[in-house]
Amino acid sequence: MACSGKGGTGKSTVSVLVGARLASLGKRVLLIELDSGLRSVDIIAGVYGRTVYDIEDVLCGRCDGDKAVVQSPLYPGLSVISAPYEGGIVRTAPLSRLTAAMSPYFDFILFDTAAGMGPAFEAGAAICSRALVVLTPDPVALRDGRIVADRLIADGHPQDALRLVINRLMPDSFGKHAPVYDLDECIDTVGIQLLGVLPESRELQRCAMLGEALPEDCMASLVGSAMAGRLLGQRIPLLV
Ligand SMILES: Nc1ncnc2c1ncn2[C@@H]1O[C@H](COP(=O)(O)OP(=O)(O)O)[C@@H](O)[C@H]1O
Ligand SMILES: [Mg+2]
After folding, report:
1. Is residue 239 domain-resident?
2. CB under 8 Å to 152, separation ≥6 — which residues?
3. Which residues form the domain of 103?
4. What is the chain's Cα-based Rg?
5. Sorting pLDDT into bands at 50, 70 and 90, what band is 87?
6. Residue 239's pLDDT band (boundaries 50, 70, 90)?
7. Res. 38: pLDDT tops 80
8. Which pLDDT does position 2 carry in this prediction?
9. pLDDT for position 85
10. Are the C-beta atoms of 91 and 59 separated by less than 8 Å?
11. Which of 13, 37, 140, 199 lies 20 to 30 Å (CA to CA) from residue 114?
12. CATH number for the domain including 57?
């Protein structure tokens, strides 16, 4: 699952990016957005307007899980279950049943959770085997990320099941006069291993806004491929 503590750090962006790149490597990927009311995966993954049923419909038993699964027209191999536009509280038991029912058909099931440690986080944390803590390189996001990571570890997740993603890195993010000195400070503050560093990307923002596919050769796609490869156990050096 993707989580953060602080809002707007790029959980949905990274979920779609990593999901799309895992799919391009031949994996069958289901991305479930759990951020009710603040949905954005539908636009980034291009399923906006194609969704009839959402995760709330499934969790409340109004439809079977497969009815809510929509193929991304932008990223072959990536399937999505969208969050509702409003309302609904994610509960662990039905989400767990859905995950079990879907798992024979997918190699990866990704939960894109909401900011904070509310019901979406709780349910995702109870079910997932690995968590990506997606943070921007600023002291507030990093401190909140530490709290989230500590919570996951206290709940029984092994430390090496947690991975840090630093998102929206800019040329002036680090340095003597910046609030955070360097990448090592990010890793030390949060206390978990790094999965990848995604720079600020106009291309990524533009594609997300317009619901277009991210070009395969842009930096964000390359970083996404590297993160996907590392999740598959490959040793890939940092690109940024
Ligand atoms: N690396 C990036 N470069 C540029 N914009 C980004 C990047 N990552 C996220 N964004 C933008 O930041 C905003 C919040 O991202 P989003 O993925 O929706 O965050 P969250 O799911 O954590 O709330 C969106 O407008 C998104 O396009
Ligand atoms: Mg989101």
Report:
1. no
2. 3, 125, 131, 161, 162
3. 2-230
4. 17
5. confident
6. confident
7. no
8. 97
9. 85
10. yes
11. 199
12. 3.40.50.300
The residue whose two tokens read 């009815």 is: 67
CA-nearest residue, atom 16 of ligand 1: 10
Tell me how many degrees the CA angle 59-77-211 measures, rounded to the nearest 5. Answer: 80
Residue 124's CB is within 10 A of a number of other CB atoms, namely 25
Cβ of residue 73 lying under 6 Å from some atom of ligand 1:
no
Instruction: Give the count of domains, the chain.
Output: 1
User: Can you tell me which atom of ligand 1 is nearest the CA of 168?
Assistant: 1
Integer CA distances (angstroms), 214 to 20, 77, 80, 225, in order: 10, 15, 17, 12
Is there a domain that residue 238 lies in?
Answer: no
Which residue has tokens 């894109």? 112
88 pocket-lining for ligand 1 (C-beta < 6 Å) = no
**Residue 29 resides in a domain:** yes
Atom from ligand 1 closest to the CA of residue 198: 1
Q: What tokens does 188 get? A: 């030390």
Q: Extract the tokens encoding 237.
A: 């050096």
Q: Which position has the token pair 């277009």?
A: 212
Inform me whether the pLDDT recorded for 240 exceeds 80: no
Nearest-CA residue for atom 23 of ligand 1: 8
Q: Residue 131: enclosing H or E segment and its boundaries?
A: strand 131-135
Report residue 218 as tokens.
């842009």
Domain membership of residue 237 (yes or no) is no
Query: Is the CB of residue 70 less than 8 Å from the CB of residue 81?
Result: yes
9 lines ligand 1 (CB under 6 A): yes
Ligand 1 in reach of 221 Cβ (< 6 A) = no
For residue 3, report the distance from its CA to the centre of ligand 1, in Å. Answer: 13
Q: What is the DSSP string of 180-196?
A: B--HHHHHHHHTSEEEE
